Amino acid sequence: MIPVLLALIERLVRRHDVRVFALGQYAEPREYRLLGARVTNLGRPARFADLPGRTLWWRRRALARALDRESCDVVHAFWASEPGWLATAVAGRRGVPAVVSLAGGELVGLPEVPYGAQLSRRARWLVGGAMRRATVVTCASGPMERLAVAHGRRPVVVPLGVPRPAADRASAAPTGDAGTSVSHRLLFVGSLNRVKDPFTLLAALRLVVDAEPRVTLDVVGEDTLHGAAQRRAVELGLGPNVVFHGFLPHAALAPLYRSARLLLVTSRHEAGPVVALEAAHWGVPSVGSHVGHLADGAGTWAATTPPGDALRLARAVLALLRDPSRRERLGRAARAWALANDADATADRFEALYAAVLGWG
CB neighbours (10 Å) of residue 28? Predict the structure, then answer.
């Protein structure tokens, strides 16, 4: 239930018959309706599911049977790992074009985290097969495009846009916290895991607070580190300066975006990230790792630093907090970029891509 994919489905069903195949949402096969699309959860085999390759081949047969019952023009897989491998294996045998979108860590291997499909022989095999067989490969950002080229495919760049917030709430610049004891609110949105690197985030915040004590950081996201980030914040004496909200429904993020001066991104790798688009819709520029969309927007609507470098990140944050005119320029540029790459634009670009691979128009 990824919001950016839900937004895409919601738009495609307005003009097309959309069928969604989910690989592992539930252990048992089932079907249901979602936003006007038909969803089939392929599930897992009832017996011997733990045997190497058993579930993959079982899902391949299940997907093949489902497509045999459908009149399908094009298959689109998100992630070039198991989804991409299955889509291209089944669609190719039926002469159906397959679009594969690189949507995560398929082309990287970060042993220090550890993260990325390139760390596993099986995952490399899945990704390699998907990219080799795909009719078209897409990605969301320039860094992912360069990785794909290094792996032998020239992708089409299609940022995964998000819906526009209500105009009356998003048109104004972020309000911050004027009149309160907090001078600047910073925002981090993402799961607390080693790829997102909350420890560099907190180390940088300590340096920022040393220079600007009235800074507060809102941290939103599921905690997969079992409280390690919260304990580190206490060790650094950041208790009064950090609010860990945990997971929040997507709709609950609007007040946090509205009050934020900057979005912080400390990821070691990002294919996007979508959160930069969400913040940009509210006129909030991003500061952080030179990855994904931030690398594309560096100097225009984002300020970037090397991943894992807390000192440079802190300096970049402080520079923008102390230069409101530059921060506002970046915020306006961020919003313009987000509007040009919103969810409607994403759907339009994918529709044009589907028509191109089918030879329509």
Answer: 8
